[in-house]
Amino acid sequence: MALPPLHSFRVFESVARLGSLAAAAVELHVTTGAVSQQIKALQASLGVELFEKRGRQRVLTASGRELQKRVASAMGEITEAVQALQAGVRPEEARVDICLSIPPAEGVEWLTRPLLRFMEESRSVRVSVITAPGMPQVDWRRADVAVIYGTPPWSGVWWRLLHGIRMTPVCSPQYLRGPLAIREAADLARHRLLHEDDGSQWQQWLAEAGYSRGGAEDIHFEDFGMLLQAARDGFGVALSDETVSQRDLDEGRLVRPLPISVAAVHNYYVVCPEAKRERPEVRAFVEWLLAIGE
To answer: Into which CATH architecture does domain 6-85 fall?
Structure first.
């Protein structure tokens, strides 16, 4: 039986280690489609399935885990052999630098976890992260790619929807107990609403729920992190996305008192100047971001 090309095993090892086609594409400086084709060809050549899709991740099958152990060991031996041959004269392995601008950490935990994992696991791509609260504050002299929370269009750049948000009420668990417990939309009349805009998002949600109310005692925030902290501390009811607030919901700091959700006025977008997007590594990194946001 003829062996598959050595490069296909390198691609397999990268996908196995990083957990996604898009992340491997960034590391290998190729497109996600090229990685996908290599994996399909390798599986066809071997006659076994090496991965199964679980959510956003590619998870190794039993056959894939066995192959990964041997391939990782073989790749390590090849690397050591080359290093021994080139001892004292081998140039440093080329590394690609990408600068990513993201909003302040509160609200993007759904992105920071896979990003930190990628930064830890990738061998040839070094990602630096800067922050900017909105599109006007992005430092494009440093940033190659940005994740923006807002509403396009924006002139002079390319953008795509990264994470479509559906907003639902969230609050402290104390709002589920006692005489002021929230059980239906009308119960919101007894509680302060927390806003991150001029009130448009709550108006949209209330219209969907078929209810209206005044807002004289409501509080408006410019910072989404402060809004969520106010909700955690029991100062009112906020609107957030299940993915954005997943950790708070999982750990019981926030709860969803009502099931209704509506499309967000603002969403998360990946943004990139057209000139920088021409770089293969930047294009591959954008594809990885889009895969994370699915």
So the answer is: Orthogonal Bundle (1.10)
